[in-house]
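During the no-cost extension, the postdoctoral fellow (Dr. R.K.) reprocessed legacy sequence entries with the updated structure-token encoder. One reprocessed record is reproduced below for audit purposes.
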Amino acid sequence: MGTSLDELLDLSLEELSNYTLTTMARKAQRVRDVAAAGYVISREDILRSGALSIPEALRMVPGIEVAQLSGNRWAVSARGLNERFANKLLVLIDGRNIYSPIFSGPLWEDQNLLMEDIERIEVVRGPGAALWGSNAVNGVINIVTRNARDTEETLISTRVDNHGGGRIAGRVGTQLGASEYLRAYALMQSGGAQPNADPTIRDASGWQARRAGFRFDGLIDGAQLTVSGNVFANRAGDIWQVPMPGSQQNPYLNLTENSFGFDTGARITTRTADDHELSVQTYINYNRMRTGELQAERTELAVDAQLRTVLGPHDVIWGLDYRWLDDRFDTQMPFEVSPASADYGRLGAFVHDEITLVPDALKWIVGTKIEQDERSGFNWQPNARLIWTPAEHITLWGAVSRAVRTLSRTETDMTLAIEGVRSGALWIQPLIRREGGRISPEKATTYELGFRQEPSADFRYDIAFYHTRYHDLRTVHSEGYSCPAGVAAIPFPGAPAVPGCAPNTITPYVLLEAHLHNQSILESTGIEASANWQVKPWWRMHLNYTNQRLEAPTTNDPIARVERERVLGASPRYQVGLRSSMNVASGQKFDLLLRHVAKLRHGDIPAYTAVDAAYHVAVSEELELSVIGKNLFDDRHPEFKNSVPDTPTAEIERSVHLIATLCF
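Re-encoded structure tokens follow.
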């Protein structure tokens, strides 16, 4: 049934470092053997910490930025450049890509998985594009769910909180044959609204979510087969700033976001007659979302195959994949996508060779992925890594990698009105239009160096340094003023000339034309550190620290300058996290999580310190009761100012959650 929460603290730090991670090399590896900044959040970590969502669990990882925007909306990124749709972080669930090519990032509010069914969350900070392809620029997160063999029992869980939210979830599992297992689950949850920093804006961020799914695992003629499927329907309030040029206003409108989606897929892993390991995965994703005047619909079909073989000192994995995507938009100003529908395919191939130079001491790893699609053209994403283990508990590694990010249709095909401003008698309305033609992908080259050590049986630490140079970044440049079509002009002798307007006339507003370009560069330098200390047999402490600096050239363009300040100011200079896990008595567990996040210049978000706590009591073998507190020593605080889309800054309140879990 897996390691119990009590047994977690009985494991030595060395045993914990043997947790496997498959994301870095598409094969099982111990974290201590990975030539990258890898981290594993175990099932026990998730349950003990009191994390109620995947983003909350990711707060435990150094180098990962997590900010709560409102009730169920999050901004999550790795190594800076944070926003609601963080576009340089690739997220997988059991190897299934949930990165949305419509919005350039995952929609975390749609990933409301049953937390009890997550086996682990694997996090690789830094580029993973040589294996996983485009958009794995700053990191890869792979959420691995539990094998159905480990969930034969029936689970019923209820949760309530002091803001009127809660969750009810159920799961059943069964054994179908000698080695075939099946589970099914369903959950409903809801959350109350969060207050806005501006009290004049009425809050409307309450939400409801429903989800159900199944997973089958079994051996079929010696091959391991997994089949899974999920369906969800969510409804949430939101507030967007929607420019209205005709009324010369930038009002905040209360909107309702309705989303629906499903996925289903299968993966089979077997050994061939010549003892090679073959794995094939296929899945389909469908999502539909409507918010106000914006409706987006996406269908994705993917097939991925890989073959692993060992030839002397070479451990080689190579593979092919194909993704077909179809998206459709129904929009009107201030958002307008043209053409309204599009479909395209992306073909990819990769090879990864791990070469043993000195057995058990030195390995050289090289590989690349190439991709071709009609929107982004041809892209290659190589990397080279070296890992040296001079002693049993000491590891040094270094890497050089190249990665690309492909732009979404909402970036390349959308005309977007952004916040207008008054200048004297004129109302100036910026209007971002597509440039026309292909816009090349964003590119990044990253240099990394890491060191990890276990100086004693009770202490270990891990440090990673990185420097990334981004180029061909998406940015917006203003092209001058123009007269809006179909707007009546008023005679005004001596009025400044505006292209498209009759001389000596003035309109209620003028347009500031802007276009999307790939002309920006940015550099990021940082350090990430984590440490684990077994203080007592019943008490373990975890510390993580991140420090980073982002730099970009200045610009005189007014719109590009605003974009530059938003990007540079949306990530904290440093973060500190401290977690304490204690078995205070038989069947009783107490965890504390303290985090400090430096200020954000964008949105004038002040630095904050938050403390979360989780207390679990096993009433019997079948029943566990939990009390979870969030933000205990602060009544409320803001964490992020979202600008894409522009929403008011919410303040995250203190909350207390009561949970009862019955497992039999």
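The CA atoms of residues 564 and 584 lie 49 Å apart. The mean pLDDT is 89. The remaining legacy entries will be reprocessed before the final report is submitted.
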